[in-house]
Design a protein that fits this description.
411 residues, alpha+beta, FAD/NAD(P)-binding domain, Helicase, Ruva Protein, domain 3, 2 domains, six-stranded antiparallel β-barrel, five-stranded parallel sheet, 19 strands, 23% strand, elongated, binds flavin-adenine dinucleotide
Length: 411
């Protein structure tokens, strides 16, 4: 019977362990935390967006780095397979907006509970409070691991599923990168991703808590448009966040964030320049006796009005009937191009995932085995693969975990 050690009892590690055990292996998971799946617990705001029910093409499109590497493992264990897998383990699921799949219970913990039940049924050993410190390497083969208590544990195969660097309190402290480097594998530069932006201007912080819907967005480096989107965003005490911002952080190459970028919002994307001008004329006619500051309620949320007034340069006490053509045009331009300066990204503690990781060039995409060290496998976020939000990152953990677990027992 093959002896398999899985380092890390997160999503990818548990999935790899299940498939290795189903293939007849004697499996042990070493998890340094007091429980399995600590990060799963906080996914989807505690509701666990376990995967996404869109067509497989959409899943591939959501992958920001190394999409091609995922062909084999994602087709080998698709999002549909993941839903079926969890349903068969007794986890009932439902589909929400954007095809996001959640446990019907709305409890992310139920994902871990389902996996734990299966691991126990299969007789896998779960060693909590057990940190792996080192790999045991003989020549170009991994023979096992050394735990923090100094004990050596021999195995035929070792799966590294230690996650990335984000939300380190969940146990993801980048240990997989050190293990990979110790056998001569490359690790690409890591950075926080799916992460908010910091902005320079004080007026941004003045709007903290304000969430905008149906807004157009462009992230630019000078005149070059790096990312454009339409949707929701949020102002915070340091800058901006929300779905569009997180996606932009995942899509735009890191080198650009070394300098100041500009964020341009179209606050009325449904209106053309002419339509917006007509709308402003109408508002000012209807409110012709009111002061400018009291005429904007129908156009902007209240937290934004003082900022719009200040940036427009129009005297807030001016009667609407006295607003000049130039002033109206300036206001229109401000609405169509509300600009902020992005000074950088927030850190790992606010990042949903890590961009970068163990280089996929050093890994066989169908087995997840290292090309540099026999018997050593990788799965999940420790790999240089990252996706958008929507259940896609957990799907990467399920697919790569299943690929590693199956390959070990099939070889
Ligand atoms: C706030 C938040 C919300 C998210 N929401 C979603 C969502 O709704 N949907 C989605 O698809 N993705 C979501 N993600 C991303 C997703 O959670 C991760 O991509 C996924 O959990 C990665 O799984 P993993 O098993 O590779 O790594 P992890 O979940 O990080 O697991 C790694 C495990 O390895 C253990 N470990 C590390 N080093 C060692 C060692 N030396 N010895 C022993 N054990 C070790 C750690 O303690 C940890 O338990 C979210 C992430 C965050 C932070």
């Amino acid at each position: 019977m093959k002896k398999v050690i899985v380092i890390g009892g997160g999503a990818a590690g548990m999935m790899a362990a299940v498939w290795a055990a189903r293939g007849g292996a004697d499996v042990t998971i070493f998890e340094k935390n007091e429980k399995l799946g600590k990060k799963i617990f906080i996914t989807g705001k505690g509701r666990g967006n376990v995967t996404n029910a869109s067509d497989i093409d959409v899943i591939f499109d959501s992958i920001c780095s190394n999409k091609k590497f995922m062909y084999s493992s994602l087709y080998g264990f698709t999002n549909d397979d993941a839903i079926k897998f969890f349903n068969e383990l007794g986890l009932s699921t439902k589909i929400e907006r954007g095809n996001r799949v959640f446990p019907t219970s709305d409890h992310a913990y139920d994902i871990t509970a389902a996996l734990t039940r299966e691991l126990k049924r299969l007789g896998a050993e779960i060693k909590l409070f057990t940190e792996v410190k080192k790999l045991i390497i003989t020549g170009d083969t991994c023979d096992g691991v050394v735990t923090a208590d100094g004990k050596r544990h021999i195995a035929d195969a070792v799966v590294i599923a230690t996650g990335g660097l984000s939300y380190q309190s969940t146990g993801s402290t980048g240990d997989g990168y050190k293990f990979a480097e110790s056998v001569g594998m490359n690790v690409t530069e890591c950075s926080p991703s799916l992460v908010p932006f910091e902005c320079k201007e004080k007026f941004v912080m003045q709007m903290q808590g304000l969430s905008l819907k149906n807004t157009g967005l462009e992230l630019r480096d000078g005149k070059k448009v790096l990312y454009s989107d339409f949707g929701e965003m949020l102002f915070t005490h340091f800058g901006v966040s929300g779905p569009m911002i997180l996606s932009a952080s995942a899509r735009v190459a890191r080198k650009y964030f070394a300098k100041n970028l500009t964020l341009h919002l179209d606050l009325k994307p449904a209106l053309s320049d002419e339509q917006l001008d007509s709308r402003l004329i109408r508002e000012f006619e209807e409110n012709n006796k009111k002061e400018f500051r009291n005429s904007l309620n129908k156009l902007f949320p209240s937290k934004m009005i003082p900022v719009i007034i200040e940036k427009s340069g129009i005297d807030q006490y001016k009667r609407c009937s006295q607003i000049s053509h130039e002033e109206r045009i300036r206001l229109k331009e401000l609405i169509k191009d509300f600009t902020m300066t992005v000074t950088g990204l927030r850190g790992y503690n606010e990042a949903i995932i890590t961009k970068g990781g163990v280089s996929v060039k050093d890994i066989d995409p169908s087995t997840m085995e290292s090309k540099k060290c026999h018997g050593l496998y990788f799965a999940g976020e420790t790999l240089d693969i990252d996706c958008l939000t929507g259940g896609f990152n957990l799907q990467i953990a399920w697919s790569t975990g299943a690929a590693a677990g199956r390959a070990i027992t099939e070889s």
